[in-house]
Specification:
By secondary structure, the protein is of the alpha/beta class. It has a single domain, classed as 4-Layer Sandwich (Metallo-beta-lactamase, Chain A), CATH 3.60.15. It has eleven helices and 21 strands. It has a nine-stranded mixed sheet. A seven-stranded mixed sheet has the order 11-14-15-16-17-18-19, covered by helices on one side. A hairpin with a 7-residue loop joins β15 and β16. It is globular, with a radius of gyration of 21 Å. 46% of the residues are buried.
Length: 391
């Protein structure tokens, strides 16, 4: 099996699936909109069907992911959770008699920031129903661990980031602190990946930290290292960051500017759907080309390796004052890629704006290779060449 990263066309939202050499699966966020579930809607891609086609089944025939990472609890990162995923203990799974397409997806292990337990208390950070369901399920799994000292499949959770006031005390066995690396998934150590947790950091009480912990700044940032071969000699990086904006990237550069390799990547999913606010405090719609780029933020995001791929999970990018996605942010990413001969892709435009499809990137020994897009483009070119010519 070739390790693969799949990015699904979900509009301005995130949904990516990582599959390792041994078939282990990680889902990063989910944005299955109601339109995508509507058979009468022919314009919105059925990404739930696309996802299920890429998932394994367990001994009971249930589709599953080994780990589900929620970068932060915004609607465009968790929509469809209640509709498509099993919540609650596996002994209560009720879909075994249903057709495969209707079975809920089992989450063997949740990966969650402790911020989901507090966001509902902020008036301007009200959680949607799917986010509330995620928080409730996370609490159930934490309680299960506290009561039993262990957890089995379907009850496991990994807490990404230490919480304040000792709230994560006693959870050290399922806690990853900011700055730590780990290589365990679903209770088992793996030689096919490791992940470096770059954010969120410990939440403090001062006003500055409260501002930085606003909803888009509380995103989990992970830099995965993925083995392309069984011997582990060829490893490639995937940097995912939810909606983290300029202040967080400035802080990361301050922390890692003397060891920029920490931020290096072969594949980057653009934070916040190719938003200009990842690079700048200035408004693109107000300032236009006069908007000032933060050199620190750009440096943090500029550590692209040779042949890197940058994926914007967004609507099609227009040359206007829209944000996100923002045309100037796209230009910044393209300028980052130019010297390393990289490639920029947008999920809402690939292979065509009128018919976007999942972008599948195979992580081969020689480096990441975009496969599905090239195949779709070639097929379209063949069809166009075979079509009857007018006159």
């Amino acid at each position: 099996m070739t390790p693969t990263l799949s990015f699904f066309p979900v509009g301005n939202g995130d949904m990516a699936l990582l599959r390792l050499l041994d078939g282990t699966t990680f889902l990063i966020d989910c944005n299955i909109r109601k339109a995508a579930d509507d058979p009468a809607d022919k314009e919105t891609r059925d990404v739930a069907k696309d996802l299920r086609a890429r998932l394994p089944r367990d001994a009971n025939g249930r589709p599953y992911v080994d780990a589900f990472l929620l970068s932060h609890p915004d609607k465009d990162h968790c929509s469809g959770l209640c509709t498509h995923f099993q919540l609650g203990a596996l002994e209560d799974y009720g879909d075994d008699g249903k057709p495969d397409a209707e079975k809920k997806i089992v989450i063997r292990e949740m990966w969650s920031s402790p911020i989901v337990f507090r966001r509902a208390h902020k008036i301007h950070h009200v959680l949607c129903d799917d986010a509330k369901a995620w928080a409730a399920e996370a609490r159930r799994r934490v309680k299960h661990f506290r009561n039993n000292g262990w957890a089995g499949e379907g009850d496991r959770i990994l807490i990404l980031g230490e919480d304040k006031d000792g709230k994560t005390d006693g959870l050290e066995a399922i806690l990853i602190r900011s700055g730590e690396r780990f290589s365990k998934v679903n209770g088992v150590s793996s030689s096919y990946f490791s992940a470096h947790l770059l954010a969120p950091s410990l939440v403090c009480d001062d006003d500055e930290e409260d501002e930085l912990r606003a909803k888009n700044q509380s995103s989990v940032i992970l830099n995965f290292e993925i083995a392309a071969t069984a011997v582990g000699m060829n490893q490639y990086r995937f940097l995912t960051a939810g909606d983290a904006e300029v202040a967080i990237w400035e802080r990361l550069w301050d922390r890692y500017k003397d060891e920029p390799e920490v931020l290096a990547y072969d594949i980057l999913e653009t934070p916040h759907h190719c938003s200009w606010h990842v690079f700048s405090y200035d408004s693109w719609s107000d300032c236009g080309e006069d908007a000032e780029v933060s050199e620190k933020a750009r440096s943090a995001l500029g550590q692209a390796r040779h042949g890197a791929k940058i994926i914007a999970s967004s609507k099609p990018i227009r040359d206007d004052d829209g944000d996100p996605p923002c045309t100037r942010a796209k230009r910044e990413y393209e300028s980052i890629l130019d010297p390393v001969f990289g490639k920029f892709l947008c999920t809402g435009e690939t292979p065509f704006t009128w018919a976007p499809a999942p972008i599948d990137i195979e992580i081969q020994a020689a480096g990441p290779k975009v496969r599905a897009v090239e195949a779709a483009t070639a097929a379209a070119a063949t069809a166009a060449a075979a079509a009857p010519r007018a006159g």
